[in-house]
Amino acid sequence: MPIFNDTKVAFADKTDAQLKKAYWMFKMIEQPALTKVGTSVLNFSVHHNFPFVTGIVKKTLFEQFCGGETRDESMKVVKQLFKRGVGSIFDYSIEGKEDEATFDAVCKEIKDIIKFSVGNPAIPFIVFKPTAFGRIDLYEAVGKNAELTSSQKEEWTRVVNRFDEVCKLCFDHDKKVMVDAEETWMQDAADHLCEEMMEKYNREKPIVWNTIQMYRTGRLEYMEENLQRAREKGYYIGYKIVRGAYMEKERARAAEKGYPDPIQPTKDASDRNYNAGIDFVMDHLDRVSAFFGTHNEISSELVMDKMKAKNLENGNPHVYFGQLYGMSDNITFYLSDKGYNAAKYLPYGPVKDVVPYLTRRAQENTSVAGQTGRELGLIEKELQRRRNKR
Question: Which of 40, 84, 242, 311 has its CA 20 to 30 A from that of 158?
Answer without folding.
Answer: 242
